[in-house]
Amino acid sequence: MEQEEPQPTSHYYVSQRLRLHYVRWGDGHRPPLFLIHGSLDHCRSWDWVAQALMDRYTIYAPDLRGHGDSDWAIGGTYSFPEFVLDIAALADTVDRDPIVIIGHSLGGGIALQYAGLFPQRVAKVVSIEGWGPPVIDNPPAHVRMREWIQQMRELERRQPRRYPTLEDAVRRMKEANPHLTDDMARHLTIHGVRRNEDGTYSWKFDNYMRQRSPYGFNLADAQDIWAQITAPVLLVKGAESWAPDPAKDGRTKVIRNSRSVIIHGAGHWVHHDQLERFLQVVNEFLAS
Questions:
Q1: Are 55 and 27 in contact (CB under 8 A)?
Q2: pLDDT tens digits for range 151-187
Q3: The model's pTM
Q4: 204-229 in b/e burial notation, b at 16+ Cβ within 10 A?
Q5: pLDDT digits (tens, 9 = 90+) for 253-268
Q6: Of 187, 185, 210, 190, which Cα lies nearest the Cα of 201?
Q7: How far is the C-alpha of 156 from the C-alpha of 147, rounded, in Å?
Q8: What DSSP letter does each residue of 152-201 carry, written as one string?
């Protein structure tokens, strides 16, 4: 008879009047490690990584505001500083320094910012494609603001998509990331949907998370914060992803103690697409 994988326990904390959810693997006696998911994702997308690391760490994986089983922001505006604030509140709740942080995409950006703002509280950081989008020429501010208002008004009228069955939602998950195995896609879907009153299924995240700030990514501010990081940093990129290569892009050169690695056969969700290779480079980094 196969032994079932250990399951995490659910907990809640409060940040900016929002009740935010996280799961924990372990009893709290081992050193703390935070796993921070990306946009439109949820905390249980880390299960495979957590199970591989829980023999050495107590794992804390939050649902960011507007995601999973955490509250949605009143008004529907989600700013990057507020996500960092929520992780700072979680760190105060856990109250066990120093913390190892692994983050993906939005979560990777949060991890780098937190490490720069509170360098004395962070032991090591792994950022999976969390150093911002490719640099593009943005329209003038007045154009961006008008477009943002129009898009927000459209989101007010948008209803969350309803999938007739769980299998329909699983198929959509596979469409979004063809690298996923069937078991991975089902697991991510089961923990990523809620059942509606009519028996259909919808994703748990707030649709307002789809809208980006009209002010965009401020690289100068990010670099000012990154330059304060004292912990070792590992930057992980998927070879098939749209994310810029940190070794060639130059934006992360301000991080004093960092190195980057590209994982082949992986897109943006490196820890799903090439789990074993990802764990190999992470384990080497954590042991060094």
A1: no
A2: 999 999 988 999 999 999 999 999 999 999 999 999 9
A3: 0.96
A4: bbbbbbeeeebeebeeeebbebbeeb
A5: 999 999 999 999 999 9
A6: 190
A7: 14
A8: HHHHHHPPPP-BSSHHHHHHHHHHH-TTS-HHHHHHHHHHHEEE-TTS-E
- DSSP sequence for 200-226: -EEESS-GGGGPPPTT---HHHHHHHH
Q: Are 71 and 18 in contact, with CB atoms under 8 Å apart?
A: yes
From first CA to last CA, the distance across the chain in angstroms is 37
Per the CB < 8 A criterion, the answer to whether 234 and 111 are in contact is no
- The DSSP code sequence of 106-164 is HHHHHHHHHHHHSGGGEEEEEEES-S-PPP--PPPHHHHHHHHHHHHHHHHHPPPP-BS
pLDDT in tens, 16-60: 999 999 999 998 889 999 999 999 999 999 999 999 999 999 999
The conformation of residue 71, written as its DSSP 8-state character, comes to P
Burial grade of 98 (CB within 10 A; 0-12, 13-18, 19 or more): middle
